[in-house]
Write a structure and sequence with these properties.
about 425 residues; ten-stranded mixed β-sheet; about 20% helix; alpha+beta
């Protein structure tokens, strides 16, 4: 056997051994530390609209277990705590379908755990909220790890009030938690831009592509730019069911392996590193399909640009359509991307148009044109082609309807959204 094949087999068996150790560790049972069932109230968020105040909080998986006495997460169920303080003269009703159209009733959950529903009924939020009163309780919804979008709609005979919150799970090991965005650049590094013409020129001059760790090989094209406040961008992604990715740690690897072997999806699966500005991605997000083999995923890096005080992120999006084994990946296997990366870019614009936070978008140059007949290869050997444009999305606080969104008269992609005037 030659040295190359020997090295390949050695690497493969080391990988399998590492997976075995991780699975064994994951199967080991240890008694978890006690959890304060009221700890979630330390993360409460409130909003006031006229004479109505809404306060919400989302317990962690461990806190929910402590509150209900059953492992709700094992059934993909999550409690959301809601308090409504009504100082008005009107009676309001809270609509849980606005929070989750597929929410669970107390008897339904009790039946799933083969237990009495008395405790579930006692903890549940109960309508109505009468004048000069306060009501509080839980709504049992579908589990979301990482971030949770909490939309609260209240109706009376005369009024409708809507509140929106984004809550973060303190136990979720998201990759972006390792980045301090406020100190990533010094004051002298920041480039402040007020003029849109200058912005367009500077966006075209941003790096064209991702690279490997050494920076000496190009990978996927940087075809996305997001401009806005972090909370507005984050809210838009969460509302469209994009999920943050976990860091690469033992439990995440175990979940990835199980999802692969069982043919299931893992909405928070770690994403391999690519590099821009000499560092791996600052943030990675994904939207999984029914199996771990298929998903839309993207990586972003905070650039030194600021447009009218708002942060500018440059990123890359592609659609995963399968998996393959390769020695070009440190985990031996990697996803295969759809070679038409412009399609993934187009999908992202259409998807975020429904987020109610997209105000404007346009296209700029900045990526090498790659013909379908002569595709390039990314860092793991997947072919791709592109028209050479990157889309620029501007985010504002919601709500923005489809008719409110403006398209900038910059570049027009070949499969244009609109014809040139």
């Amino acid at each position: 056997m030659n040295r190359s094949k020997s090295k390949t087999l050695w690497k493969f068996w080391i990988f399998l051994l590492a997976l075995f150790v991780l699975v064994v560790q994951g199967c080991a049972t240890t008694k978890p530390p006690p959890v304060d069932p009221l700890a979630y109230k330390n993360r409460m968020k409130s909003s006031v609209m006229g004479d109505v105040t809404i306060t919400v909080a989302v317990p962690t998986i461990a806190e929910a277990h402590s509150i209900y006495g059953v492992e709700l997460a094992s059934k993909h169920i999550q409690p959301v705590w809601v308090e409504v303080k009504n100082d008005s003269a009107d009676t309001y009703w809270f609509l849980p379908s606005g929070l989750d159209p597929d929410y669970f009733s107390p008897p339904e959950v009790a039946f799933a755990f083969k237990t009495d529903d008395e405790k579930f009924q006692k903890l549940q939020f109960k309508n109505p909220i009468r004048p000069e009163s306060t009501k509080a309780g839980f709504v049992l919804v579908n589990l979301d790890e990482g971030f949770k979008a909490v939309d609260i709609d209240l109706i009376s005979r005369k009024k409708v009030k809507s509140f929106s919150f984004i809550t973060a799970d303190p136990e979720f090991r998201a990759d972006h938690k390792e980045i301090d965005f406020e100190t990533l650049y010094t004051a002298k590094d920041i480039i402040n831009i007020e003029d849109e013409k200058k912005l367009r020129r500077m966006l075209e001059e941003l790096p064209c592509c991702t690279t490997n760790a050494d920076g000496d090989e190009y990978g996927d094209p940087l075809n996305l730019i997001l401009i806005g406040k972090i909370n507005d961008i984050l809210s838009a992604l969460v509302r469209r069911n994009w999920h943050a990715t976990e860091t690469i740690w033992s439990q995440a690897l175990i979940r990835t392996i199980k999802s692969f072997l069982q043919g299931e999806r893992y909405r928070y699966s770690p994403i391999s590193p690519l590099y821009v500005y000499g560092r791996r991605q600052d943030v990675a997000w994904q939207k999984a399909r029914s199996t771990i083999n298929e998903r839309n995923h993207m990586r972003f890096w905070l650039s030194p640009l600021r447009f009218r005080g708002k942060k500018v992120f440059v990123g890359q999006i592609s659609r995963d359509i399968g998996v393959k084994f390769t020695l070009k990946s440190p985990t031996i296997s990697t996803h295969v991307i759809d070679p038409d990366v412009d399609e993934a870019r187009r999908y992202f614009v259409e998807d975020l148009a429904y987020s109610q936070a997209l105000a404007r978008f346009g296209f700029v140059k900045g990526v090498p044109v790659v013909a379908k007949e002569a595709p390039r290869m990314n860092l793991v050997g997947d072919p791709f082609y592109t028209d050479g444009l990157r889309v620029v999305l501007f985010f504002e606080p919601r709500p923005y309807t489809l008719s409110d969104i403006k398209m900038l008269k910059w570049e027009i992609p070949s499969d244009s959204y609109t014809k040139k005037e």
